[in-house]
Amino acid sequence: GIGICGNIASIMVLSKREFKDTFHKLLISLSLVDSTFIICAVFTFLVRSQGLLEGPLSNILAPLFLICLALGSCALVTSMYLTISISVERYFGICYPIQSRVQGRRRLCVYLVPVIFFSLLFNLPKFLEITPGGELNWKLSNNLLYNKIYGQYAELTVTVVIPLLALLCFNCRIYLAVRNTTLRGFGNSVRQRRENNLALILITIVVVFLCCQSLKFFLAFYKVHVTTKTLYCDTLGLAPWYPKWMHTLSYINHFMLVLNSSTNFIIYCFVGTRFRKSLLLSFYSHMRCLNIMNNHTNSSTTLGLSRQTEMSYISRTPSPRDLRKHGKLQATNSSHRNRSHYRHLHISDSRLICQMDDQLSLTYCGDDN
Fold first, then answer.
1. Fewest CB atoms less than 10 Å from the CB: which of 16, 21, 95, 172?
2. Mapping DSSP to helix (H, G, I), strand (E, B) and coil, where does residue 99 land?
3. pLDDT at 311 exceeding the cut of 90
4. What is the pLDDT of residues 162-198, one digit of tens each?
5. Alpha-carbon Rg of the chain, whole angstroms?
6. CA–CA distance, 128 with 136 (Å, rounded to integer)
């Protein structure tokens, strides 16, 4: 996951307007191919390690597993020859700068299309090993002549010998050209310093590439070395036996290949000055945008709360019309209360007068007796 994230970040940075050279476009293509290889390699490793080909999902995972094997091999070959194409581009950019500038951006197709076409053509037999039903074509994959010519000698030549010689040849010439321009004092211009920096990035990529591919080179030579023994076992109807250290190196080789496809972003950050500055500017701009969005959200929330408070205060504060109505209502209620009070006093006074009249009448009647 880290390698894919690094490749995506590389693509985002190199897609900016300031990175418009053919070299940068080829680096974008390399990041895409490396991401494809990482996905295929991780998927095949998980399927093998977890034994998913024998589980309930084998009908779905088996065809995907075979396709990922062929696609991963195609991506690996494309990555190798894209690195060679980048070396060729830098060789012409350093050793023949005038011709390189005249041709312009149209050179991208010249470097990219042949690599993709050759990679697909070379890996076509691996796709033919998959039947239309999504199963392995055992007749082709177990053919001795096919395994000897294509699986060993052709693979050794295409994936080991040619890339190794081409990368060493071109990058040694590039290193010597950069060293000569530096010693002669021709590397003081801005354009020349930029070209030298791109050459340094390429040389670092190639050194890491050769280190990570070293086990693959060794295993390919060892596989050709034991070809006669393998064929002899097949003639006897016996399965070939490989030592345990070879299986261990095979697992380490797979890890190193994935690591090689994941480290280009780190190389760009440490060696590429323009890439590092552009990445930091993008990071700071994104952080600033996030801070602005957070501040806007907080201000909107605060404004909403203040508006709710104002509305609630306004709803609780009576208007002048309401105050006049409330005053009239209070006056009406007080007049009603006064009237009822007066009525009550009048009734009580009437009762008191009646009681006094009764007492007087009783007293008068008693005196007569």
1. 172
2. helix
3. no
4. 999 999 998 888 888 888 776 665 555 666 677 777 8
5. 45
6. 9
Across 179-189, b (16+ Cβ under 10 Å) vs e yields eebeeeeebee
Q: How many CA atoms lie within 13 A of 17 on its CB side?
A: 0
pLDDT digits (tens, 9 = 90+) for 6-46: 889 889 988 888 888 888 899 999 999 999 999 999 999 88
Q: How far apart are CA 270 and CA 279, in angstroms?
A: 12
Helix/strand number for the chain, H first, E second: 16, 0
Residue pair 70/127 in contact (Cβ under 8 Å)? The answer is: yes
CA dist 263 and 209 (Å) reads 10
Tokens of 190: 């801005």
- Cβ 221 vs Cβ 160: under 8 Å: yes
Q: What is the DSSP string of 205-238?
A: HHHHHHHHHHHHHHHHHHHHHTHHHHHHHHHTT-
The tokens for 364 are 């008068």
Written as one letter, the residue type at 327 is G
